[in-house]
Amino acid sequence: xxxxxxxxxxxxxxxxxxxxxxxxxxxxxxxxxxxxxxxxxxxxxxxxxxxxxxxxxxxxxxxxxxxxxxxxxxxxxxxxxxxxxxxxxxxxxxxxxxxxxxxxxxxxxxxxxxxxxxxxxxxxxxxxxxxxxxxxxxxxxxxxxxxxxxxxxxxxxxxxxxxxxxxxxxxxxxxxxxxxxxxxxxxxxxxxxxxxxxxxxxxxxxxxxxxxxxxxxxxxxxxxxxxxxxxxxxxxxxxxxxxxxxxxxxxxxxxxxxxxxxxxxxxxxxxxxxxxxxxxxxxxxxxxxxxxxxxxxxxxxxxxxxxxxxxxxxxxxxxxxxxxxxxxxxxxxxxxxxxxxxxxxxxxxxxxxxxxxxxxxxxxxxxxxxxxxxxxxxxxxxxxxxxxxxxxxxxxxxxxxxxxxxxxxxxxxxxxxxxxxxxxxxxxxxxxxxxxxxxxxxxxxxxxxxxxxxxxxxxxxxxxxxxxxxxxxxxxxxxxxxxxxxxxxxxx
Length: 492
Prior knowledge:
Elements: H1 4-12, H2 19-30, H3 38-54, H4 60-75, H5 87-103, H6 105-110, H7 114-117, H8 121-130, H9 147-156, H10 158-172, H11 178-195, H12 201-232, H13 235-249, H14 255-273, H15 277-293, H16 295-298, H17 303-306, H18 312-318, H19 335-338, H20 342-348, H21 350-364, H22 370-387, H23 393-397, H24 400-441, H25 447-465, H26 470-477, H27 482-488
Helix pairs in contact: 2-11, 3-4, 3-10, 3-11, 3-15, 4-5, 9-10, 10-11, 11-12, 12-14, 13-14, 13-21, 14-15, 20-21, 21-22, 22-24, 24-25, 25-26
């Protein structure tokens, strides 16, 4: 079972790629009004997302009733000037919402929030957040029971169809960031309008809605893990994760730009993970505007995205391809292991040296999984911590390069071991070995759970061991396995 964990860890940090959805996004964008007043026009939907994500057990009508009561407070967010911070406005909206829930004893009891309501406001939000959960009891992304009927509803009241989608998606995926829900709701709305004009509505809906459903499921999982990183680890770890991901995506950007961007992205994740949808939407919009204002210095791949309107710009940039690697031959990485002044930098400016090493290593090794790069980073940090206490530190840390290669080699070896074991045992015996290991690790898992995840993992190994780039395959194809894997292994 130990072999299963690295695959889950290897995959979940990967950026979700969904080219099919990208085409849907771009198609929808062409029909979407490029509004300068996006927040104002979508404030009701933004408030609905916040309410549904916290009150997952509430009915659609209950959510809409609460939204109506919050709209007056939310309206104040409309008058914010561009240079003003949305924090106060969004904080007041959140506080008002939590007080509303706690003042309604029946609602608090239904949602099991009574304990949260008995503590002060500062701790109350954290308490509410602990009750959020991805749960299969909530229906998946809004399914259409009667195509003819929904087309009639859309014809009479287009807002109702979109609002229902937002409600269902928000309660099913409480960790999914608000801007993403707004983006996919626009795609969904466009698909409905398009398919209702077709003779074969069923086939049209299947083709156009499946990529949206798949994207929501995968990006929601990613958002949940990003929130877990923020909860379980300190801010330096969270920032390191973002630094690696951003460097791999934008290897030509200079160090100072990447560091600033990593800090901004980390802060945005924190805001979105706290359920503050207004601040999340505004923060995402501002971050993407800043990114597009520096696109020539960051990445050539985001230029088409920056031509899009809100909310498509953000999802497009997040899912854009990694930029081409720059020529780094004039800047050898050996300066981190051969320069005799490394310990002085480590002691005096550790917070500069270590992130710079992470940046330089990441831009040279974009093919490696984030988990591997972070292990290399940890090895280097521990190496300097030990060597810089010695009389001759250079002789000690000069072995760093071999140690980094060993970490990478171990990662390749794990992949090879999976493939060799399958070849040695054959498919049937390999399946039995996985089954035995998983049952030992999780004896309380149901037979259906165990068989399902083993079948998926066996298929993953079979597919990727035959691929030309096995490790790349494991990272990419593994996204199909990760939701079951994380759930079964208790990574909630």
